[in-house]
Amino acid sequence: MLVAIARASARHAKKLVLCALALAIAAAIYGSGVARALAPGGFEVRGGEAQWVAAEVERRFGHGTPDLVALVWMEGVAADAPPMHAVLTAVESALRAEPAIATVDGPLGPAGAALLSKDGNTAMLALSLRGTASAKEQAFDRVVEVMNDAAGTARVEVGGPLAVAVVGQHTAEHDLVRAELVAFPLVGLLLLAFFGGRIATLLPLAVGGLAIAFATAVLRGLAELATISVFALNIVTLLGLGLAIDYSLFMVQRFREELVFGSVPEAVMRTVTSAGKTMLFSGVAVAVSLLALLVFPIALLHSIAIAGALIVVLTIVAALVVLPAMLAWLGHRVEWPRRPSTHLGRTDQLERGWGRLATWVMRRPGLVMFGTAAMLLLVGAPALRLQTALSDARIFPSDFEVRKVHERLEDPSGFDARGTVQYLVVLEGEQPIWQLEQLGHVYDTHSALLAVPGVKHVDDLVTALGQDVRFMVAGGLLGYAPSLPAGLEQLVDDDATLLRVTAQAPADAPAR
């Protein structure tokens, strides 16, 4: 196979290079919007309990955990003053008129003062949106615009999981471009120092650019068929550029050495069958290792596995097919502006620095092995005290609005209601929730949740009914379904009821 690739690259060098260039341009155009097609996050466990609960809440009650948190305030005006009351009324009315909004919880609702800051100057709104993650992202800008328009002179700052996802997506797209603009010139300077020739310097960068362009196009296509995390872009850029440089160094340097001993076609043949074989086995090993991440039921790891294996395969193809064609087309011009080298014999190479280093290592294998292991253990020692947590708004710089909102919500002196976790209690069987036995289960769960350290409030059927719970009990005793008070349709769905738990704890607190 490698012999056939080498012959085809030497015979049709110009056609292969021009064809690859045209395809890369088309791929770059198609893949330019890949960040917007990819999904945010991906930290949930597929098929896990949390994902099932979220889906059930959405299906049964039409909403889930709050997607957005908005802080509203006016300079010098208390949050419970008439001007702010008018602003909050206008904002909530405008939001409820939006088709994308499922629920709006604010100080004017049942939560009341719990959604006012302790200093009395800021009001908090918790919003749940309808639809899939993609639909919510598309509605984000519209929702923010509606709030700002309705607030008038009042200030509105937006945070929450959806804001983190959208801002993260935009930031990833921006950072990807910036990383490429910074990385390519720096790598180019290093390659220029290594090769000495400008043409040889550009070849690894060209291979990296081709692989990344093709990978972004394929990722955009895959995003139409499956959920791919936006973090896959970082893997594509990181591995694409790194592997392209690594593999191209093998190929280009070997080609320059082989030019001394034969013609250009012969040099291409020996390069592909020697350095190309090493590169091929290395790439296959890396790709297979990355695919092992598919074993874990986490969407983010699946995206990393797919993106990583994809960029490795495409880099191998670019370095094994397109790069030899470039070398065959350039021939001795690969050394430009240097004169073709005539002193790169195999024996002379042993006298160079890397050859002497390799010889020294082979003569002292035990010393090198234990010394290297000790160094790696020393460098990795800090990981013994590593504490992990899910990413949230703290991943952004302190001047980002979404980070400011998060810090205000996490500040104990800011709000009483800091974090809201939703639980869905599904009663097995066909028994309606209003039957006496089921109401007893709901009440017991309500009491157990209130006993958990950090839980401040449980908003559910028990708290919503209050004294009216006796009518529900009477209905259970008499065997008929009583009419539910207005608003309870968001908490009750035949054989299920929703409990919203307000807990005061940092975002990275352990689960209880």
Structural class by helix and strand composition: alpha+beta
Contiguous low-pLDDT stretches (5 residues minimum) are: 342-347, 476-481
Placed side by side, the strands forming the largest sheet appear as 2-3-1-4
> What is the radius of gyration computed over CA atoms, rounded to a whole number of angstroms?
31 Å
Structure description:
With 512 residues, the protein is of the alpha+beta class. Helix 8 (198-223) packs antiparallel against helix 9. Strand 7 and strand 8 form a beta hairpin. Among the domains are: 2-30 and 167-346, Up-down Bundle (Multidrug efflux transporter AcrB transmembrane fold); 418-503, no CATH class. It contains 18 helices and eight strands. The chain has helices at 2-11, 13-30, 34-37, 49-61, 82-96, 133-151, 161-195, 198-223, 232-258, 264-291, 299-330, 346-349, 353-363, 365-380, 401-410, 436-450, 461-465, 469-478; strands at 68-73, 101-105, 122-129, 155-159, 419-426, 455-459, 492-493, 496-503. Mean pLDDT is 81; it is low at 342-347 and 476-481. The longest helix is centred in the middle third of the chain and has 35 residues, at 161-195. The strands form two sheets. A four-stranded antiparallel sheet has the order 2-3-1-4, with helices on both faces. The chain is elongated.
Question: How are the elements arranged and paired?
Answer:
Layout: H1 2-11, H2 13-30, H3 34-37, H4 49-61, E1 68-73, H5 82-96, E2 101-105, E3 122-129, H6 133-151, E4 155-159, H7 161-195, H8 198-223, H9 232-258, H10 264-291, H11 299-330, H12 346-349, H13 353-363, H14 365-380, H15 401-410, E5 419-426, H16 436-450, E6 455-459, H17 461-465, H18 469-478, E7 492-493, E8 496-503
Antiparallel strand pairs: 1-3, 1-4, 2-3, 5-8, 6-8, 7-8
Helix pairs in contact: 1-10, 1-11, 2-8, 2-11, 5-6, 6-7, 7-8, 7-9, 8-9, 8-11, 9-10, 9-11, 10-11
